Amino acid sequence: MAASSVLKKGTSTSPHRKNRGDLDTSLGASPLFQQSASRAIRVVSMCENRIGCRARGTLSIGRHGLATQMQMDLVRAGKKTPPPNAAEVWIDFDGTLTTQDVVDSLVRGFCATDAWRALEDAWQAGQIGSRECLAGQFSLVRIGEEDLDAFLASISLDPGTPRLFELLGRHGVPAMILSDGIDWFIDYILRAHDLQPPPVRSNTLVRSGASWQLVCPHFSPACQSAAAHCKCASMERLGTPGRWRIYVGDGRSDLCAARKAHLRFAKGTLAANLEDEGLEYAPFATLNDVCHVLETAWPQRRLRAA
């Protein structure tokens, strides 16, 4: 995927907020887009009574119907799921493709001291970015190769992960995993589940004596999320001009990229952050919910024989 520009504009007083009704008019006017838009299902968008809006990320969409608690369109003011040949999908890994945050679990289970907690608190408070936090925490991790392999083999995937990969492959939609975690952790986990992952852009980890050293080749000091991997910069650099960006994530490191996406699927901290900023998103409980939306919007297409 080649470098891409933001296809919508915002006039909000906040530099990070976008107008909910903005869309790329050249794409929106195309017959193929209109056809795809007509297939877009209505999904959960906002609690009508606004009680427990953070729970938007925990609602599941049933196979035979729509959730009844919320009744807004997946995308307001003309935004609909783009057709496959006009879309590109960016996916977080930890907590999105997996059922748990891999790095968080490793740190909590294998740090030599409790000093990781102070780093975590400082990161949560916004006093440091994730690069400083993770570098300090990984320096405290003590785990042998066999135990690390066993730990990574124990990580379970979101039940919709294989379905999502198959769906994107079937429709030929460009996709990339953008992670603030570790590249070879991701590769190990997905291959352990017999999955061929899409391209991965992430941090990496190297052994440094008894501990581990974090390497962040995609760090940017200008990152709006102060992340070890600036996902918004990666998306800008690698995206395809003219394609609509679909982002799927759950965490704080996803916020800068999600702000620049045209269609957002969010849960957890990301959903809460988007809610606070007034940015539209579609909540999901598992990736099966995301797949349900895309499968309904996109026409059926069989995989070509190899």
Topology:
Layout: H1 25-28, H2 31-39, E1 87-91, H3 102-110, H4 116-124, H5 130-138, H6 145-153, H7 161-171, E2 175-182, H8 183-192, E3 200-208, E4 211-215, H9 231-238, E5 244-249, H10 255-259, E6 263-266, H11 268-277, E7 282-283, H12 287-297
Parallel strand pairs: 1-2, 1-5, 2-3, 5-6, 6-7
Antiparallel strand pairs: 3-4
Q: Give the beta-strand count.
A: 7
- The gross shape turns out to be globular
Q: Indicate the low-confidence ranges by residue numbers.
A: 1-79
Report Rg: 19 Å
Our estimate of the beta-strand percent is 5-15%
3D structure, described in words:
The chain is of the alpha/beta class and 306 residues long. It has a domain at 25-96 and 159-203 and 225-297: Rossmann fold, CATH 3.40.50.1000. 34% of the residues lie in helices and 13% in strands. The chain has a 7-stranded mixed β-sheet with strand order 4-3-2-1-5-6-7. A hairpin with a 2-residue loop joins strand 3 (200-208) and strand 4 (211-215).
Task: Characterize this entry briefly.
By secondary structure, the chain is α/β, with parallel strands linked by helices. The protein contains 12 helices and 7 strands.
